[in-house]
Write a structure and sequence with these properties.
four-stranded antiparallel β-sheet, about 375 residues, Ribosomal Protein S5, domain 2, six-stranded mixed β-sheet, alpha+beta, 14 strands, 7 helices, about 25% strand
Amino acid sequence: METRLANIWRLTVNEKKFIETALQSDLRIDGRRPFDFRNISIKFSREEGSAEVQLGQTHVMAFVTAQLTQPYKDRPNEGTLSMFTEFSPMADPSFEPGRPSEAAVELGRVIDRGLRESRAVDTESLCVLSGKSVWAVRVDLHILDNGGNLVDAANIAALAALLTFRRPECSLGGEDGQQVIVHPPEVREPLPLIIHHLPIAVTFAFFSNESTVVVDPTHYEEAVMGGRMTATLNANNDICAIQKAGGEGVLQSVIMQCLRIAGQKAYDITTKIKNAVESYNTERALRKIKRHPSSVALDISGAGVNIGKNQNKPVPQKGDSERSNLTSEKSVADQSMDIEGEAKSSEQQQTNKIDGDAKNFIGGPSSWNNNAK
């Protein structure tokens, strides 16, 4: 592969021998044990369906989009799921812009096979109108930094982005009931994808000695390795896919050992992804609550409208009825006198204003002369 050749050219003979000698002693140049993963960091943006994963020095970003298209003729009731990868020259000098390289095509196929063959995403729920309109979900993977083991990092990014993606809700209308109506998020809440399980990709690197196997190889270890195998499993230890990308042969006992290790790693990574998505959903719900102001409770049981403050008003007793009646009559009389005084003052102000405007108005009706030329 082009990436591996570029890494070989960067390494010297002494560096290769140093890595191989250290691996024979169960030591790795970054201080990890043979079956330890690097630190995984999962971040989400404010936009739904976007995830950024950092696995050591490997940095991958995933975006999920969807659009309505016609289904395939052999599957009229199922939507589609497709993977697209982009290797930026910023991530590795061996990556060239333009047409996808063999490494990019292989990366997309490995992740797509793990998701599609295991039926992780419910594609039947993406059907809007049988045989005419379905949702086509597209996952774009952008490699930002190549620090080794792109398959595992890109797989985690794709799963995290799919878990946070929400598509618009659709309904059928029109005269014949065959017109698809897409509702905006302000009208109806978008719907998340139905994902049954999370297929996790775990990559193993084999070296000249068959007994030397490591998990999550770095770009330096990929330059020295003699073969590679990617096992895709879920948290229930169900094997979704296995990819052996050429290289040296591996014994059956070694493959079984790798599958047992991959099952444990898949469970740990699944837990990390679910925790990150749960925290994102909580933050999203809080942002949604803040956008909607809290409503004020109104008491409309009486003649007027009272806002919450008069709810604890004490109930008058029978002995106070006469005094309350006198007080109410007096208050009504005072209010009527105040209203009459305000009306008179307002009328006087309006009269003064009109007189002033008439004096200040030049060419008004009093100065018009019909006989003037």
